């Protein structure tokens, strides 16, 4: 098994698990800290919004930094941002200062941006026949976090006299361990620099294979974030308590990561486009399950399928992207995908609350269906046969 035989993939798998453990604890507790510290209740989710902005702001610079200095330097720098952000957030919690806590959210977002590149580094550590497996196994590291994070969040919330302080101190420790692990990642090739990055990214999007890869990944990300963010609110409105919604979210995260161990071999065998199509269909089934009822089982099944569909579309898009550019274009191509994922994810996260309150749970699920259908149309009609000609011409 690649995860056992390839040391680089194994290191990245563990680093991914540590990152998602930090992220899931943060997702669980940050808004609660915001409610406790914010001067106005309406500002409670501001730290999460700033985290998203830190992510968006860090995606492209980190990619270009790795293009110039190598993978190890870039990934370690990202984890150091995680240490800095969690340290600042811990200080904010300790002092009861909302402003300091908000400042800490920004570098944590940059850590999130760097972790998005783990699966790309895995692609470079294996031969072409195993690229789908490599990206999938590294992404699958999140399943360990999904199993542990809810209990860690509950325990660390009250571990110290100051509520929530233990959680952010634990995040510091996990990010430091990640830095130690990432020091063993290969530096990787440092290709020649390409000037005028904006123009390069525009040219990349004109290639059918790149356009398809970016589109299906971003659609999967946007739809997943929209429905995932709306789910706890919908369950609250339906009378479910926090423990029940937490269990649904746990199974959502398991759906996001556990299938990666199967998705990788499937992509290598049947092709990224076919697996992306299956992921799209699963998202449509997820929405249909949500529309069939409002009991606990419907929420759980739809959330599990939502995670599974996202997983297949993300991994298929990642693999397809790697087939559509040369080494010199790597930094811009990967940044392009992560910017698209981040922008649609940010729009979805801000829109979810307004949609669920203003239009309702059914409208959220009905509304996501046409978006997924657009992805299926792109997969069907955007042909990647000219991709290799584009690469040769560059």
Question: What's the short version?
Answer:
The protein is an all-alpha fold and 394 residues long.
CATH T-level fold name of the largest domain: Growth Hormone, Chain: A
How much helical structure, as a percent, in the residues?
over 70%
CATH second-level architecture of the largest domain: Up-down Bundle
Major pleated sheet: none
Query: Segments where pLDDT lies below 50 for 5+ residues?
Result: 384-394
Count every helix, treating DSSP H or I runs of 4 or more residues as helices: 18
Write the H/E string, N to C: HHHHHHHHHHHHHHHHHH
Mean pLDDT: 81
Derived from helix and strand composition plus strand pairing, the structural class reads mainly alpha
CATH top level of the largest domain?
A: Mainly Alpha
**Distance between the amino and carboxyl termini:** 36 Å
CATH-wise, what's the superfamily of the largest domain? MFS general substrate transporter like domains
**Total individual domains:** 2
List keywords for this structure.
Growth Hormone, Chain: A; mainly alpha; 394 residues; disordered C terminus; 2 domains; globular
């Amino acid at each position: 098994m690649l995860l056992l035989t390839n040391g680089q993939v194994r290191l990245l798998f563990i680093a991914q698990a540590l990152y998602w453990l930090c992220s899931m604890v943060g997702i669980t507790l940050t808004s609660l800290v915001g409610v406790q510290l914010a001067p106005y209740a309406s500002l409670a989710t501001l730290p999460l919004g700033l985290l998203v902005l830190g992510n968006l702001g860090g995606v492209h610079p980190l990619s270009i930094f790795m293009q110039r200095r190598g993978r190890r330097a870039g990934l370690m720098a990202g984890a150091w941002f995680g240490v800095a952000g969690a340290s600042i957030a811990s200080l904010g919690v300790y002092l009861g200062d909302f402003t300091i806590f908000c400042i800490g959210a920004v570098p944590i977002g940059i850590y999130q941006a760097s972790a998005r590149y783990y699966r790309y580094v895995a692609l470079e550590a294996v031969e072409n026949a195993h690229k789908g497996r490599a990206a999938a196994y590294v992404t699958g590291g999140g399943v360990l976090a999904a199993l542990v994070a809810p209990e860690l969040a509950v325990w660390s919330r009250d571990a110290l006299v100051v509520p929530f302080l233990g959680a952010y101190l634990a995040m510091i420790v996990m990010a430091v361990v990640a830095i130690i692990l990432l020091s063993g990642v290969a530096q990787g090739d440092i290709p020649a620099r390409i000037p005028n990055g904006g123009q390069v990214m525009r040219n990349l999007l004109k290639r059918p294979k790149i356009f398809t890869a970016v589109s299906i990944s971003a659609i999967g990300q946007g739809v997943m974030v929209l429905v995932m963010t709306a789910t706890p609110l919908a369950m609250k409105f339906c009378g479910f308590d926090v423990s029940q919604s937490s269990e649904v979210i746990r199974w959502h995260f398991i759906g996001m990561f556990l299938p990666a161990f199967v998705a990788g071999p499937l992509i290598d065998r049947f092709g990224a486009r076919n697996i992306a199509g299956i992921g799209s269909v699963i998202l449509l089934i997820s929405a249909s399950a949500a529309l069939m009822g409002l009991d606990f089982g419907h929420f759980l099944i739809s959330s599990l399928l939502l995670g599974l569909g996202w997983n297949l579309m993300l991994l298929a898009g990642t693999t397809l992207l790697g087939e559509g550019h040369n080494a010199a274009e790597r930094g811009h191509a990967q940044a392009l995908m992560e910017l698209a994922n981040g922008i649609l994810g940010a729009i979805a996260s801000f829109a979810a609350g307004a949609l669920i309150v203003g239009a309702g749970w059914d409208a959220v699920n009905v509304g996501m269906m046409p978006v997924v259908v657009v992805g299926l149309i792109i997969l069907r009609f955007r042909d990647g046969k000219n991709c290799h000609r584009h690469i040769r011409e560059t």
